């Protein structure tokens, strides 16, 4: 099977799961993973932006992955974000991911230092060399300040282990250029949830998204409509999804809002970790309304 066939589809960028004291809670991680296992998605992206990987210690990140693997190994594909600020820690997490049966690893460039392309290449290469897992580049220039060039992507993609890119940059032109630079079997996963359909049309093989976490069924449906060439209906659904995303983004804490919505469905994940703000009590009522609106949309599309 080709890489694109193996990994195409919808991946929830899983939120963190902490207890009431803010510590990683393995049982809550498992419950969250289980919640998604029944939703028709292809897999989970663990420890990425939505998962707060870079706010956690290496030991906590390992605990999260182990809990996920214990719960849904073989049921969902698991791509784990192993990017850390030091190459050493990233390599340690890559090896751990392989030892615990993840399907692929992925990483942002290191942040804080303004790194040259050569430094980022070395950082990624060490992770690639440290395990036998497929590697998916994570490009998110608006947060890392590093813009992946199609030239570097083309160079890295010559290695069989480098199978794709998670493209969280907003330009669908760049997305298409990565697809071209990577070659025929190079996987491109769309990052901006608001542009899932646009990304698909420009060559993405699926998507990884944080807001999928509160409406995975709707993104699966959107993907289905795209695949069935029902573009007008797909556009209509993307608009409805975007109205939800706009409401989520209006809160001071996107992750806090999404995690609160999950709690209303009986899936407790605690608050995001500072400096990401917790959800405000004054927002609870409007989030309950938003939750109801999402569930009504899911029902409108006939999804169980
Ligand atoms: C810049 C950013 O955080 N983008 C998010 C989106 O899911 C984003 O939250 C969504 O499109 C709302 O703007 C994802 O691309 C990141 C992601 O999937 C992850 O690693 O959690």
UniProtKB/TrEMBL annotation:
Pyruvate binds at residue 208. Keywords: Lyase. GO terms for cellular component: cytosol. It holds the Pfam family DHDPS. The keyword Transcription regulation does not apply. The active site is at 138 (proton donor/acceptor), 166 (schiff-base intermediate with substrate). Transmembrane segments: none annotated. InterPro entries: Aldolase_TIM (IPR013785), DapA-like (IPR002220). GO terms for biological process: N-acetylneuraminate catabolic process. One of its GO terms (molecular function) is N-acetylneuraminate lyase activity. PANTHER family: N-ACETYLNEURAMINATE LYASE. Belongs to the DapA family. This is N-acetylneuraminate lyase. The lineage of its organism: Bacteria, Bacillati, Bacillota, Bacilli, Bacillales.
């Amino acid at each position: 099977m080709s890489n694109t066939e193996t990994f195409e589809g919808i991946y929830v960028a899983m939120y963190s799961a902490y207890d009431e004291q803010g510590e990683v809670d393995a049982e809550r991680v498992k419950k969250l993973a289980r919640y998604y296992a029944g939703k028709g998605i292809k897999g989970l992206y663990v420890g990425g932006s939505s998962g707060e990987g870079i706010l956690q210690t290496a030991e906590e990140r390992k605990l999260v992955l182990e809990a996920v693997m214990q719960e849904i190994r073989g049921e969902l594909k698991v791509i784990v974000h192993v990017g850390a600020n030091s190459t050493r820690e990233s390599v340690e997490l890559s090896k751990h991911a392989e030892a615990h049966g993840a399907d692929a690893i992925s990483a942002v460039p290191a942040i804080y230092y303004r790194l040259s392309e050569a430094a980022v290449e070395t950082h990624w290469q060490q992770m690639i060399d440290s395990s036998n897992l497929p590697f998916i580049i994570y490009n998110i220039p608006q947060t890392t300040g590093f813009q992946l060039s199609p030239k570097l992507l083309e160079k890295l993609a010559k290695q069989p282990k480098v199978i794709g890119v998670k493209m969280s940059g907003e330009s669908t032109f760049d997305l298409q250029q990565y697809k071209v630079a990577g070659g025929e079997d190079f996987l491109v996963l769309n990052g901006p949830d608001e542009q899932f359909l646009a990304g698909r049309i420009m060559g993405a093989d699926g998507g990884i998204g944080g807001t999928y976490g509160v409406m995975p069924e709707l993104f699966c449906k959107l993907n289905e409509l795209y695949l069935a060439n029902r573009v007008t209906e797909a556009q209509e659904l993307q608009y409805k999804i975007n109205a939800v995303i706009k409401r989520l983004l209006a809160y001071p804490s996107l992750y806090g809002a999404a995690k609160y919505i999950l709690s209303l469905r009986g899936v407790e994940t605690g608050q995001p970790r500072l400096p990401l703000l917790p959800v405000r009590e004054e927002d609870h009522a409007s989030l309950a309304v938003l939750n109801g609106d999402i569930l009504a949309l899911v029902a409108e599309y006939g999804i169980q």
